[in-house]
Amino acid sequence: MPLALLALAIGAFGIGTTEFVIMGLLPEVAAGYGVSIPTAGLLVTGYALGVVLGAPVMTVLGTRIPRKRMLMLLMGLFIAGNVLSALAPAFGVMLAGRVVASLAHGAFFGIGSVVAAGLVAPEKKAGAIAMMFTGLTVANVVGVPLGTLVGQHLGWRVTFLIVAALGVLGLLGIARLVPELPRPEGVRVRHEVAAFRNVQVLLAMAMTVLGFGGVFAAITYITPMLTDVAGFADTSVTWLLVLFGLGMVTGNLVGGRYADRALMPMLYASLGALAVVLALFTLTAHDKAGAAVTVFLIGALGFATVPPLQKRVLDQAAGAPTLASAVNIGAFNLGNALAAWLGGLVITAGLGWTAPNWVGAALAASALVLALVSGALERRTARRAADGAADRAADASRVVAAGTPEAAPTPVHH
Fold first, then answer.
1. Cα–Cα dist 212/364, whole Å
2. CA-CA distance, 374 to 201, in Å (whole number)?
3. How far apart (Å, rounded) are the C-alpha atoms in residues 103 and 62?
4. The CA-based dihedral angle spanning residues 80, 83, 88, 94, taken in that order and rounded to the nearest 10 degrees
5. Is the pLDDT of residue 45 over 70?
């Protein structure tokens, strides 16, 4: 794997840290600005919506810019957003900083996926994408716990300044290690938009929303599930989330490795297993050991779907993959928001803290159904193409046979 992937992974590490660390610092931020914790929660919602909206907008704006330069500009935007968040004198200014930082998120991963896939041989594309996303998964193991610890002891503003410094490191790495990649000739916005006419692209994005949404249905409410149901102390939750992050790292690497060998079977297996594990979490959540193992498995199986889904979009949108790749990153965040909302509904309905696991299982199972439909459509298209090729070959043979003059009869001498 080329060193350029390390630079992309560092940028992904910074982005992953800033996305998730706010969840552990909401009480401190709320106290600092004199607002309620639910109001401070707008910093999470605002970031997610910024990713969904920013992914296509920033990608379209960057269609005329070489990809390396665009990645550097996106990291600059990310740095500016985090510095603004760190220095914000009022809550509204911090919210604006969060949105500014989020605008870089989807386009960075979307364009970064295209760049990563282009740096390696075709049979290693999913592995290269997984290598970049390793930065995002490691952020949940290292960046988020450390950022939370720093914020609780030195102040949350210090955390966001450190995240901005990570962005500077990623920017320098991209400038130094990523090769110059000229903008593909002939690619226009209309070509990028045309990819969305492909039903396979839309199916892959729907799988992203539902499949990863299944993970967040459970993880959004993991703290009360672990403390009120499993019986863990509040101080144990951070380390259990580290366990979840380790699962993400493992699943990401495994998913990237096997997606290069058998993409659709990898999706079938990971989505099916994820649905089963989420359903079982309603039972294992009542036991400390069982809950810990399940949290790891949810992280592993959830992120095992990421490289194959991202590669699926790249493959199906071949020729103009950048916008589709970025929008698919937004689809992950759309799934997160949808699942968190649905999980909240079942809790509010009085079904208990473990009820979101059933929501997650249903979402993952729905994604599996879409994957099976996508695979069936692909096989049918391949059969039609093969039959068409066979018919054309048969027609060509008949034409050749009809145009060949018959051999003259051999004269007989008496």
1. 7
2. 10
3. 13
4. 60
5. yes
